[in-house]
Write a structure and sequence with these properties.
It comes from Methylobacterium iners. This is Double-GTPase 1 domain-containing protein. Helix content is about 35%, strand content about 20%. The protein has one domain (about 5-130, about 165-275): Rossmann fold, CATH 3.40.50.300. A hairpin with a 6-residue loop joins β3 and β4. The two termini are about 15 Å apart. The chain has 12 helices and 8 strands. The chain has an 8-stranded mixed beta sheet with strand order 2-3-4-1-5-6-7-8, with helices on both faces.
Length: about 280
């Protein structure tokens, strides 16, 4: 049985670094039961210790910059099946994914990671304004376009003007053509900051269809390439910059974590990763 390699990807500020800090504490501390067990860490142990320490103190986890990119891989195994898994974080900052969108190129190591057997965990953040504009939203802007052009106020194009959903779909479309090895993959969409979702009765897949319909439609329309599920993830358990921080500090760190989705235990972030293994 060959090892699996799961790629953890997402745009900047999508929650990957906070997830990494919470996951490392979860599988290292042994405070709650998890479906995956730690074997070893390969990468920048000092950086990992820094973000985990901030996470344990309910402080904002330092954002990773592309200049200080930490190349980290966590080796774990699934006790029930004995299957060994490598969790790869090809770009914690997410900035190289932005660069990929603009330059239409990526690093060889990134391609090599996708060529290994395994799935994808794609992060989106619930705690940010979504960009689902309709034609009704655009009508006033288009109506004033002539006036802006006459006044010389046209804004130069920037990748930051492109809706997040479009960039995410483009990121996934990259994996469907050379030099990537095109095949059917499991993909888990992790909706981070799930604690800010007002309607906690809504399922993560329903949230995805409502808030990021273009991404949801793309995944649904490409079953030959992606088999996907959505999970709601709250790696911190709440807003650590607000009044809840004091309450969160009183709790056992692992029990602050929440994971919502198919076959997920409430505090176990490894549930979507186990599903990526291909069982069930």
């Amino acid at each position: 049985m060959s090892d699996l390699y799961h790629s953890i990807v997402g745009l900047p500020r999508s929650g990957k670094t906070t997830f990494l800090a919470a996951l490392w504490h979860l599988i290292d501390a042994g405070e709650v039961n998890t479906k995956l067990v730690l074997d070893k860490l390969v990468g920048d142990n000092q950086y990992l210790n820094e973000i985990v320490e901030a996470w344990r103190k309910c402080e904002e986890v330092p954002r990773t910059s592309m200049a200080a990119e930490a190349n980290i891989a966590i080796h774990v195994h699934e006790p029930i099946s004995g299957r060994k898994v490598v969790l790869g974080f090809p770009d914690l900052s997410g900035e190289s994914f932005q660069s990929q969108f603009v330059t239409r190129g990526c690093r060889n190591a990134y391609v090599e990671g996708y060529d290994r057997p395994g799935g994808i965990m794609l992060f989106v953040n619930a705690d940010r304004g979504q960009d689902g504009l309709t034609i009704l939203d655009l009508a006033p802007i288009l109506a004033g376009a002539d006036e802006a052009e006459q006044a010389g106020e046209l804004r130069e194009w920037s990748h930051e003007l492109v809706p997040e959903q479009v960039r995410l779909v483009d990121l996934l479309q990259f994996t469907q053509r050379p030099p990537f090895d095109r095949r059917r993959r499991r993909l888990a969409v992790a909706v981070s900051a799930w604690d800010v979702v007002v309607d906690q009765a809504v399922a993560p897949d329903e949230w995805l269809a409502r808030e990021l319909p273009f991404l949801h439609q793309f995944l649904s329309a490409n079953p030959e390439t992606f088999e996907f599920r959505a999970y709601g993830v709250s790696a911190q358990g709440g807003d650590v910059t607000g009044e809840r921080r004091t309450e969160l500090l009183k709790r056992t760190p692992s029990e602050r974590i929440r994971c919502v989705g198919p076959e997920a235990e409430v505090h176990d972030l490894t549930a979507p990763l186990v599903w990526l293994n291909g069982d069930g």
